[in-house]
Each structure stands twice: as C-alpha cells, then as structure tokens.
Amino acid sequence: MAAGQGTGDAGQFDFIVVGAGSAGCVLASRLSAGGKHSVLLLEAGPRDRNIWIHIPIGYAKLFKNSDVNWMYQTEAEPELEGRSIFQPRGKVMGGSSSINGLIYIRGQRADYDRWRQLGNTGWGYDDVLPYFKKAENQQRGADDFHGTGGPLSVSDPRQSDPLCEAFIKAAAENGIPTNPDFNGATQEGAGYYQTTTRNGRRGSTARSYLRSAHIRPNLRVETNAWAQRILFEGKRAVGVVWRQNGVLRSARAEREVLICSGAFNSPQLLQLSGVGPGELLRQYGIGVVHDAQGVGASLQDHLQVRMVMRCSRPITLNDDVKSLRRSAWMVMRYAMFRKGPLTIAAGYAGAFFKTHPRLATPDVQVHFIPFSTDKMGENLHTFSGFTASICQLRPESRGSVKIRSADPSIPPEIRINYLATETDRTTNVEGLKILRKILHAPAMKPFVEAEVEPGPSIMSDADLLTYCRQRGGTIYHPTSTCRMGNDPLAVVDQQLRVRGVERLRVIDGSVMPDLVSGNTNAPIVMIAEKASDMILQDARG
Using one digit for the tens of pLDDT, what is the confidence trace for 336-362? Predict the structure, then answer.
C-alpha cells in the first residue's frame, strides 16, 4: 500500500515497533532510552490489567480468553489423525510473555553455534551469552552464565514440592543427574525450573521493560491498535497502518519499521503488505512489493505428549481446588506471602535427557507439574493427579503460515506438520518410554497409585506412537517463519533486516533459523536485546 492512502495521520517517529510482546517491549524500552529517538509502539490487544496476568498460575485462566489471546488453530494435522491443534498467542501488552508458562530456559550452547555454522555470523553462543546476561536479574547472583541488574527477573521456585523432589530423585535412579541450573554449564539433568517472576508475580516484558519506560516523552504506546499493513514507497518501508476503535490510522517511520508480532502474525503482516510468495499475494489481489518465497515457510514448533498419573496422596493442586478450605488458604497464602500453589509455573520441575547414548546433547525435555487435566485451560481432574510431559527438542518437521485473505481479520492458515519425519516419531516414542521409567521408579512409588494416561495397556512402540498422534499437542513454541540466513528462502539477514526491501526488520521468534532446545521466551528476549544494539549502532553511523 502506498504511503498516506486514506488514513488518519498519527505523526512521525524514528522507529515504529509493531507488537508489544516478548521482543517489542524490549525494543521500545531500549530504543527510547536516553531520549534521542522517538518510538511508537503498537499493540493489537489491551493493556495488561487482567489480574490473572500477574499471578503465575493465571496462565490457566488466560488460555482461552480471547480478550488477551489470539486463540489460533492449525489446519488438520495429517500425522495427528487429522486433528486441529489449538495455538494460544498473547494479544495484550507483553504478548505471550503475559500469558505463557513463565519458564526460563535458554536452550543449549550447540543451538546457537549451529546458527553460526549455518552462516549467521554473530549468533554463536559466545556472541549471544552477553545479551542473555544483560537482560537478566538473576536471583542467585551473577556468574559466568548469569547476570544481575537487568530488567528481567529470573527466580527460583518459592517453595519445594514433595512430588517434584520425588521426580528429581527418580530421574537420578534412571541415570539422569540432578542439575541445579539448566542454563549453566550443561543442560542435561533433572531439577527445578527457574521462572520469569519476581516476588511471586509474573515478570512479563511489559512489566519488566516498560513499567518505567512508558512515561518517557519520546515513547508513545498505542493499545488496541491492530496493524493492517506496512506502508512502502517503492521498496522502502516508511510507515504502518493500523485499525484502532474502528478507525484506520497511520504513522510514518523516519528510520525503520520493526515487526515484532510473532511467528504467526509477523509473516501474515508481511504478506498482507506485499512481501511474501508472489503467487500467494496475487491470488488475493495484493500488490507484490517483493517476492519472498520464504516468508511464512519453515515453521517449527515443539510437540508435547503428556503422561497423567493418579497420586496416592491428596497433595496435588487437584486436591486444593476441590476443597473450599484449602482453596481459601491457597488464596490467603498467596495474598499474604506470595507463596503456595498460585505461584506454580507450567513446569515446576523438569528434566533434559538423551533418547540414545550416541547423541551429544539432550533431545527431550520434560515438564513436571503437580496437577492434572484432560486439556490445558480446562477443569482439573477430580482425583489426586499430576502430569509429566515430553517434548522433542529439535524436531525436523517444518510447516508454513499463509494468509487466506487480504483481510487482516481473517486468521492465517497454519500448518505445522508435527511428526512428519521418522526421527520425530521415534524420538517421541523413546522419550515416552524413558519418562515412563522415571514415573515408575522407586522414588515415585510412594506417590503413584496408577498410570492414567497413556495407561498400562499402551506398551508397544506402535501403540505409543498412536497415543502421540491422538493426544499430542503444542507446547507453544512456534518459530522460524521469517528465519535468518543466507539461502534463497531466508527472510532476514544477520542484522534481522528483511532481504529485498529497505528500512524494515523482523525481530521475534520468527527469525530463529531453527528451534532452540527448550522454551523460547528467554531466547526471544535475547534476540531483541541484541537487535536493539544493532539498530542503535546503525543509527549512530
């Protein structure tokens, strides 16, 4: 769309940041610091005023809340028996960092060294570690791997848990060592997860990075501002059009437009703006600014397959919730001390292990939580129960994101292609077998009454694979739809500039060349920290 085409003018800014999520809040804070550059931050959702955003276990309440969640669905997944998989994404200040499971995991050194080996100079582990440390305010203090004084609080659990302790011991009984720091010298092992919380409250990027920055006169934040398209003059990005309260508005960017809308919305916005596969754009009457076949390609996500156990003791969150007395104490304990079950993240304890000794690093992650449900976001089971899940860390399967209309309000077509390769299928089956051994190890026996899912009748590899197909779902880590690289399908370069156009960058999880070995929020914050330095360096030049 040409600049200034029939919209209400909202002024000029040095930078326009599209999406106030895990990356966008970081950029808005860093670029507006010092007062030299004017920044407009656009967020499609509301301010983060919902109380459940700030209570750690509130993610369960926000899972299907369309006020703060895009609530996407995939197309029918061929290898998951044709099921459509629910894909929650944050639509609120803080983005998915306001509704996610709060776990702080960076991935493995090898992930980033692999990025560098793919030709992405400046993205090896030694290059990115300083940005992880810059972002971090580590409760345990600074060391070779961790930083203090950064905006993002990283904390230990507020209290230990008997089921988690038993799980960690059971892992050791199966040769998986206890590891107090998954983000330190090595990832392999079992232990408690650290979380992006502070004093028992969620530390989203909105809270961590914008809480003080939003009062700066050179930073303007617009909520309920849904980006419709990027404005171009020739191949130069010059502004953004957004819809707000039913009215189209626009603003110009004197320096750059920075897209931080996530692995689904960033490729959608590029395609709507004329940057994407030419044939697809012409199909919907969109003028082609740049024919970029890789926009929306290469989608990856982590598949999660859960095991549910019936607990022999009434010590789970299931038991707390069904008791009025215990529920009341749970609320009071949180209100007075910021402790108790309301501080539980989406993984309380966990593990990283190898499914085969020939592997150099772990290829499976476990999330362990002291409650159980049929599906996340639904009521807990009435019985005492707990859950442990596996996810394959480095899936080979790739999918795509494509617009299905020139109308921005029509959700994109999302195809992830879970379990599309033999490696992916085998890794999930082997991961379940190892997890089952852990959950039935001696340390767990005092707490296990029965295995509910998959259940004792599901024993063969074929039956376990069928279980993965029937019950597997996302663990909410979509990436790589605007991936960084040097090959013909790479969308951005090593400076995260969109290839083939000018003054436009993508900065979020969509630029990852491939999935990291773990949760994605911490790496996205790192990417935004590094991008901020690159952008400011270019501005000084």
Answer: 999 999 999 999 999 999 999 999 999
Residues 285-298 as b/e (b if ≥16 CB within 10 A, e otherwise) read: ebeebbbbebbbbb
Among the options 146, 214, 290, 477, which is catalytic?
477
- Asked if residue 253 lies in contact with residue 13, where contact means CB atoms within 8 angstroms, the answer is yes
Q: What is the 3-state secondary structure (H, E, C) of 186-235?
A: CCCEEEECCECEECCEECCHHHHHHCCHHHCCCEEEECCEEEEEEEEECC
DSSP 535: H
- Tokens 């007062």 identify what position? 35
H or E element, residue 263: helix 262-272
The reply to whether 146 belongs to the active site is no
What letter does residue 257 receive in the DSSP assignment? E
Q: For residues 385 and 139, is the Cβ–Cβ distance under 8 A?
A: no
pLDDT value at 80 more than 80: yes
Tens-place pLDDT, residues 506-538: 999 999 999 999 999 999 999 999 999 999 999
Q: Are 375 and 395 in contact (CB under 8 A)?
A: no
Q: Residue 7: pLDDT above 60?
A: no
Q: In sequence order, what are the beta bridge partners of 474?
A: 303
Q: What integer pLDDT is reported at residue 399 of this predicted model? A: 98
